[in-house]
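Appendix B, record 7
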Amino acid sequence: MNFDIITIDSFYIIFNNTGFYITSENDISISLVYINSDISTAGDGDKVLEFNADTTSGTVWFNISGFPVGNSYVIKRDGNEISTPTANSSGFISFSNNVWSLHQFEIFQDGEASGDIISPQISNIEITLSNQIDTEADFGWENITCTVTDNVGVDTVSVNITYPNATTIKQIMTNIIGSDQYYYNISFSQYGNYSYYIWADDTSNNTDISSISSFSLPPNWDIDNDGSCNVFDYVLISNHYGETGSAGWIREDVDNNGQIQVFDLVMVSTYYSVTWWE
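Structure tokens (predicted):
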């Protein structure tokens, strides 16, 4: 057996992730015989641990760590079943013994288990806005992307979005086939401040939740995106007055008709002195 880490204390000893926490009224000697190299992937009936123990009398409590939460096990003493514990929320199984001299103890996986207790990992969260930010659906868009990895398999990745009016939505993100990349593309029509976070589940029901990110979308009438409609927005439109291009090609084309003209000035005047940033 090869161990990367062995930790010894007066109350316990840990071999890698498998720890022996033993309570005994008398001196007790433990001889480790076998540890499964990967307890988390053990199948039904697989032996995961074997050791010999020797003491003179009394009741000894064994608390052994390193087991996948919720997995069940069969404890055998000298080949006879004595206990069927289930790993608790900290990955411990516990059993006692009061039949003494030298005895062999074996622990077997009881039933199939996923063996997967590792949550997926979310990283590289980004949002990309259309080249000209626009709250009209045919012209503006937003794309939220992230990377999600898992040791076994990712099941579902979703984005939870809170709108400026406090409405919330949860949408499934699309996986780019053959990669760990996920995206959600949408055209938001509300202007204001948004927040969002990513939620990922793997095929073993382990979960990871990202921290909250935020972004803002200015209304079309706030040409310079400074949080208010004022004379500077008029000036920007006047600088391009009479120009034409593709619909919505610049922010000054407020009504997205491809022409910088009086109608754009009228739309701005309707919101003059209005602020939107909070």
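Remarks on this record: The longest strand covers residues 192-202. Helices lie at 231-239, 262-270.
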